[in-house]
Amino acid sequence: MAGSGVSVSLVTFNAAADVVACLEALAAQTLRPLCVRVFDNASTDGTAEVVAAHFPEVRLYESPLNRGYAAAQNRGAALAHADGAQYVLFLTPDVVLAPDHLERLVGALDADPGAASAGGKLLRPDGRTLDGAGIVASRARHFRDRGQGELDSGQYDDPGASAPFAPCGAAVLHRLEALADVAVGEEVLDESFFAYKEDVDLAWRLRLRGWRLLHVPGATARHRRAAPYASSAPGRRRSLAELRRARRALSPVVRRLSARNQLLVLLKNEHVRVLVSADALRIVGRQLALLGWALVFEPATLVGCLGFLRRLPGALRRRWRFRRKVGHAVSRGWFR
């Protein structure tokens, strides 16, 4: 099926091992996109060469510098708008979409004009284990992939009753009108984040402007993370040893960026009234616990806090320039 009104924006960095399967899955979609673009962030493993050799129909943009995931996707959104597309799919190369993935997401957004974004259900490569059914947020502002590591038995397949806080940014379809509504200057994704948690920041801003975010469990994909967290049985707390193993599986760069960007997300989006709510103690307590963990086990992660301080003025400017429509009474229901 052609004429989908969808432009695809795929950002790569040293993804030669994944990009072929990702692009082949895009080529097999029942709803063909108007355009597929690959933005390569200075890969050194031949990713761009693989794309050029095997997918001549794909528009390839090679950057001499790695400017980050957010900057590349902002360029993809701008070019999608120039295409006259209605939607843009933000995609990472470690995702292999089921053939009807795009068709299901487009159908969901077409049916709900008040929805900004739609994401599906991500499975690990075995096809049975959940990688995530959207991102959920706790009252302590802990953002995590829902169901990660659980066997998929349809436990998150009710798209309404179990709507998450945000779709996972690895594969999410956005309405371009909504992205324009929340852009700050020319930026849809905050480029100061570089990568990680930019999907949470965008989802929060969309919610603050009154847009809905959809979970479409029938749109499935397989997601091969480089270092997924070790999982435990639902309802069981992980031991200290399990937590340390899970953290060590992540690169120091990921840990630093995640710590820094968590603070930026809170500063940019949290409602002032939360300071006098019960959630304030939860938020502060969690951040102090994370700081203590870093002091004891991950001193290098503290560099992320210094990065936050350097970006503090820019984050405040972005907050002041953003005009929210939704107040605290509504937004507090997003955190459980």
Which terms would index this structure?
2 domains; alpha/beta; nine-stranded mixed beta sheet; 18% strand; globular; Spore Coat Polysaccharide Biosynthesis Protein SpsA, Chain A; two-stranded antiparallel sheet; 336 residues
Would you kindly provide a written description of the structure presented here, covering whatever features stand out?
The protein has helices spanning 19-27, 47-54, 69-83, 101-110, 176-182, 198-208, 240-248, 252-269, 279-297, 302-321, 328-331; strands at residues 6-12, 35-41, 59-63, 87-91, 95-97, 115-123, 130-132, 135-137, 143-145, 171-175, 212-223. The strands form two sheets. Strands 1, 2, 3, 4, 5, 6, 7, 10 and 11 form a nine-stranded mixed beta sheet that branches. A two-stranded antiparallel sheet has the order 8-9. By secondary structure, it is of the alpha/beta class. It contains eleven helices and eleven strands. Helices cover 39% and strands 18% of the residues. It folds into two domains: 6-223, Spore Coat Polysaccharide Biosynthesis Protein SpsA, Chain A (Alpha-Beta Complex), CATH 3.90.550.60; 240-334, no CATH class. Helix 6 (198-208) runs parallel beside helix 8. The model has no long low-confidence stretch (mean pLDDT 92).
The biggest beta sheet is recorded as:
9 strands, mixed
Average pLDDT: 92
CATH architecture of the largest domain, by name, is: Alpha-Beta Complex
- Report the end-to-end length measured between terminal Cα atoms: 40 Å
Strand content: 15-25%
Order of helices and strands: EHEHEHEEHEEEEEHHEHHHHH
Instruction: Supply the helix-strand structural class.
Output: alpha/beta
